[in-house]
């Protein structure tokens, strides 16, 4: 309302009478509901509090509502780990930059962006990252490459880039350490946005680099909509690491304190008073690792028969599933050792709708299962056990 606007006032006493009458009518309408709730023993709480999950408001009596004991619904994990739980055996990682982007960003700005992306992970984990000269050995190797780069044309498990937009980057799981960025993109420091002046998308290098570093540490894509490791995190604009990534790191590398004074700080009450700091530095002493009830992996029914394949090391192996029944509109689900496979992993396996390709090596040994489902009904199941012949 503007400064000069004014609402005409009512006659004196009319507003008070109307408010009392409205309150009486509301009370009469709510009385049967309150009586019914009292008989059922359910706490009377405002409707908005039920939508707040655990943050429920106290009941009308001023006493917090009690929870009825019963089986808790299992919370589904959102993060996913690699099938073999590939991980590093040390926390002091080095990286080198083999090539720089040709569009917009200078080498100095590129270094600054990559350092910021690494800090997002070192601030919440035991990892530390240090850049070394390009000619020195390193754990991680970073480069900006054209569409056809390294071995992407001859390897079925290493994607070539597709030009502007589309696939922005990809990374390899431990201990490979490769992180490749598409040099056709227009990388910037700042939010991803469309440039009407240039007619191209400008992509946030810090955000994409942090996502790929998560893969290089052993995390796959998350199903949590606000996780940095979500498949579409770049489009959704979520930049900060979520609790989902931290749980994934704890499962993969354990829950470790970063300082020797953590136990003393915990006894002094810092776990509550300085919760954010303690989550980053002292998760073990404050039991922050175990806040989330880690679920067990939903297993699939074993197939009637499992074929064993003895394959020479290094050979490309392809499994095909459900060709004869795909016309029934079934959906194919792939598993390795009962762990769901949802995405392709560069350098390890390529996942299609009805086929799966792997490179025979020690990491990829195991039992692969495909299940064809239509809604809740299982149409068929196939399984292969892969053993590598050296």
TrEMBL record:
TM spans (from-to): 20-38
Binding site for Zn(2+) 2: 211, 215, 221, 229
SUPFAM superfamilies reported in the protein's UniProt record: Immunoglobulin, Metalloproteases ('zincins'), catalytic domain
Binding site for Ca(2+) 1: 183, 185
A GO BP annotation: collagen catabolic process
Compartments it resides in: Endoplasmic reticulum membrane
Highest taxon above the source species: Eukaryota
Molecular functions per Gene Ontology: metalloendopeptidase activity; zinc ion binding
Main location: endoplasmic reticulum
One Pfam assignment: Peptidase_M10
SMART domains: IG, ShKT, ZnMc
Free-text remark on how the cofactor is bound: Can bind about 5 Ca(2+) ions per subunit.
UniProt-listed InterPro entries: Ig-like_dom (IPR007110), Ig-like_dom_sf (IPR036179), Ig-like_fold (IPR013783), Ig_sub (IPR003599), M10A_MMP (IPR033739), MetalloPept_cat_dom_sf (IPR024079), Pept_M10_metallopeptidase (IPR001818), Pept_M10A (IPR021190)
Annotated residues for binding of Ca(2+) 3: 162-163, 182, 185
Chain residues that bind Ca(2+) 2: 139
Binding site for Zn(2+) 1: 149, 151, 170, 180
Needed co-factor(s): Ca(2+); Zn(2+)
Disulfide-bonded cysteines: 255-289
Ig-like domain residues: 295-380
Active site: 212
General function of this protein: Protease. May regulate the surface expression of some potassium channels by retaining them in the endoplasmic reticulum.
Name of protein: Matrix metalloproteinase-23
Annotated organism of origin: Cercocebus atys
